[in-house]
Amino acid sequence: MTYSVAASHAKGKCATDKIFGANAAAAKAAAQYGKNKVVNATIGAFMDEQERLACIPTVEKVFKNFSINHIIPYAPIAGLPDYLAAMIELTFADHKPEAYIDAVATAGGTGAIHHTIWNYSEIGDMILTSDWYWGPYKILCQDALRTLDTYTLFDDQQKFNIGAFSAKVREIIAKQNNLVIIINTPAHNPTGFSLSDSDWDQVLDLFKDCVKDTTKHIIPLIDIAYIDYAGEKNACRSFLKKFGNLPANILPILACSMSKGFTMYGQRTGVMIGISSNKEIITEFQSINQFTSRATWSNINYSAMKLLADIYQDKSLLAQTEQERGEYYALIRKRADIFMREAQEVNLHILPYIAGFFITVPVENPEAVCEKLHDDHIFAVPLAKGIRIAVCAVTSEKMTGMAGKFAKAIQAV
Ligand code: PLP
What is the best residue among 106, 129, 132, 257 to mutate for testing ligand 1's pocket, by most ligand atoms within 8 Å of CB? Predict the structure, then answer.
C-alpha cells in the first residue's frame, strides 16, 4: 500500500476521467495530422461548423456589457431572487405543476445532484439510476458515502424498461426509507433518450404505490441539463405538469443548469427546484439546501445569475437568446440525422436517440473499437458497454461517413 495520510473514507479516491483522456488523445492527433483530418467526438459542448466553442451571441453580448460591479460581488447564498424566479419560469414554461415550488442556486447541475444526494439519502444508502448513465453520478455517490445501483434502461423493444425499473425501486425501497432516483431526461446523456409522457405516468403510479407505506420517501432527482436541446420548448416540458398534487412523501427535485442551455459551462451556475404538495417540505427544502451550500461553496457566480435574470426580464433579449439557441439545436439535429441515416444504411445498431448532445453505439469491447477508430483519426468516448459520440461537437461535414467507419471498426475487432 502506498503511504497515505488520508482519512479512512478518503483513501484510494481517484477520479480518472475517460472523457478528458479521450479529448487529450484527439488534441494530440490534431497536432500531429492537422485539425482537418481529426474528428473529435469527445467534447460535451456545442461546437459550431468551424469547430469553435460556441457562445450564444446574446449571452456573450450581455455578459461583455457588465461592469466590474456586476462581476465581482458576493451573491446571496440561496441565489439572486430574480435569478431563482427566472429559472423557475424558464424551467416550467407552460407546464408549471399545481404545487409548492422553490429553488436554491447551485454550482451547476452537479451542485444540485450533490445536495440532493447529501440531504435526501442516508449515509450508506443506495441511489438508483439507469445502466447507461453520466459517470460523475457514481463519483458523487461514492464521495458522499452512498452506493449507486442501476436498472436496465431499455427493454427488448428499445423502450423504457418499466419492468426492470419497478423491480429495482421495490427492491431498494424495501430496505431503506429514503430513495433518491436520478432520472436524466429529456435528452439523456449518453444515449439521447427521453421518457415519454406515458412512461412518466407509469413511473409516477409506481412511486405512489411504493409510498402508501408512509415511512417511505421517494425523491426523484430529474436531471434536466439538456432540456433546452430536447425538442419544442413546451412539448418536451409537458411531463413537468405531472409533478403536481403528488403525495407529500414524493419530492421531485429538478437539477437545472446554465451550462448547456446558456453556453455558460465553466461559469458553474445552476439551480435545484423542489416541487411538493406540502408547504413544510418546501420550506425545509429551502432551508437544508441553502445550509449545505453554505457548507460546500458558500455562494455561487453572481454575474451568471445576473445575466440570466437580465435576459429573462427583457423579452426581446429572451426571444433572441431562444432563437439563437434554436439554431444550435437545429445544427445538432442535422448532425444526428446524418449519423442515424447512415447508421441505418450500414446496419449499425445505435441506442434510441431522441435528442440532445450524444448518440451511443452499443458494442461489446468499447476500448478496442475506440482504439481501432483512431486509425481513421476518430476519437470518441468508450463507456462500459458502448461508445459515446458527441454530436454536439462534430461538424456536419465530418459527421458524413462516420457511421460507416464505426461499422468497419466494429467488424475489425
Ligand atoms: N447532468 C448531465 C447528464 C451532464 O452531462 C452534465 C454536464 O455535462 C450535468 C448534469 C451538469 O453539468 P454542470 O454541472 O456543468 O451544470
Answer: 257
- Residues in contact with ligand 1 by the CB-under-6-Å rule are 44, 108-110, 134, 184, 189, 223, 225, 257, 259, 265, 270
- Residues 301/303/309/311 CA torsion (nearest 10 deg): -130
Q: Look at residue 224 and give its three-state secondary structure.
A: coil
Query: In ligand 1, which atom is closest to the CA atom of 189?
Result: 3
pLDDT tens over the chain, length 413 residues? 589 999 999 999 988 777 888 888 999 999 999 999 999 999 999 999 999 999 999 999 999 999 999 999 999 999 999 999 999 999 999 999 999 999 999 999 999 999 999 999 999 999 999 999 999 999 999 999 999 999 999 999 999 999 999 999 999 999 999 999 999 999 999 999 999 999 999 999 999 999 999 999 999 999 999 999 999 999 999 999 999 999 999 999 999 999 999 999 999 999 999 999 999 999 999 999 999 999 999 999 999 999 999 999 999 999 999 999 999 999 999 999 999 999 999 999 999 999 999 999 999 999 999 999 999 999 999 999 999 999 999 999 999 999 999 999 999 99
Q: Is 83 helix (H, G, I), strand (E, B) or coil?
A: helix
Q: How far is the CA of 261 from the centre of ligand 1 (A)?
A: 11
How many whole angstroms from 228 Cα to the centroid of ligand 1?
A: 13
Ligand 1 atom 5 nearest Cα: 189
Query: Which residue lies with its CA nearest to atom 11 of ligand 1?
Result: 109
- Tell me which residue has its CA closest to atom 6 in ligand 1: 225
Check if the interface score ipTM surpasses 0.95: yes
Residue whose CA lies nearest to ligand 1 atom number 1:
225
DSSP states of 273-330: EEEES-HHHHHHHHHHHHHHHHHHTSS--HHHHHHHHHHHHSHHHHHHHHHHHHHHHH
Extended beta strands in 112-174, E state: 126-130, 147-151
Domains and CATH numbers, the chain: 8-56+319-412 (3.90.1150.10), 73-314 (3.40.640.10)
